Amino acid sequence: MKLGEAFTGAKKLLPPLEARMLVMHAASVTATDIAAHPERDFPAIRIREFMSLVERRLAGEPMAYLVGKREFYGREFRVTPAVLIPRPETESLVEVALKKVSRDGTPRILDLGAGSGCVAITLALELGSEVTAVDVSPEALAVARDNAARLGAHVKLIESDWFSAVEGQFELIVGNPPYVAEGDPHLAQGDLRFEPMTALACGADGLSAIRRIVADAPHYLAPGGWLFVEHGYDQADAVRGLLEQSGFGAIEQHRDLADIIRVSGGALTAGNT
């Protein structure tokens, strides 16, 4: 089989971009190689893998898991089925966080639900400081640790059920917790079918994790510290209410690129530490 033959065959079944990515991944070639040298032999030992990748994609498996990577905030992160696939919406959480901390000094930052490490690593690299990140999954932490080492980020990774193993206080706490309601029909559709359910769904209304985070965060925030969480498209009012109940002030809600309120947070007011 030649590179051009593999690409042409895959294009009959998949969108051209996906077909090209799978050829590149399986044959360890570039897009230029495919275009300029279609007559080049496809490595014989990789043909079976390539055919398997095409079949898995036809079955709906996410491209990010098939090729083992996804871009986030201009950087390439390794992903496995142990972690959520980084999404553009979560870049909004990073943007908000970067505006709330000084780039001078060493701000203390905590990321809840590290997953692939995309949020914590991005903040660490953008700010040039160490970020603490927690996740309850050892498998997810292994992926985050690998990404941090590969990208040269200073991230302290802790196995923890939210705040259970966390010590100290922070100027900023961010989190992308599970926020889909258990039983939501979307969980049986598209990429979500293949992603870790514990990182997606939490409680009958999807707010169980956010309730816990908002309630416990005041004990881990320095005076004047900020908390921001990503949430569902229809949860903005509910999350604002939770923040108000826990004594947060200066509440902010930020829209993503689709003009949906996706990130909410506030500052810790005096007397609520």
What is this structure, in a nutshell?
With 273 residues, this protein is α/β, with parallel strands linked by helices. The chain has ten helices and nine strands.
Listing every helix as H and every strand as E from the N terminus to the C terminus, the arrangement reads HHHHHEEHEHEHEEHEHEE
Task: Write down the domain tally.
Answer: 2
What is the average of the pLDDT values? 94
Low-confidence stretches: none
The CATH architecture name of the largest domain reads 3-Layer(aba) Sandwich
Q: Sum up the overall morphology in one term.
A: elongated
Instruction: Name the CATH superfamily classification of the largest domain.
Output: Vaccinia Virus protein VP39
* Structure summary, number of beta strands: 9
Query: What strand order characterises the main sheet?
Result: 5-4-3-6-7-9-8
How many helices? The count is: 10
CATH topology of the largest domain: Rossmann fold
The separation of the N and C termini measures 65 Å
How would you sum up the major sheet? 7 strands, mixed
Give the radius of gyration: 21 Å
Helix content: 25-40%
Helix and strand composition category: alpha/beta
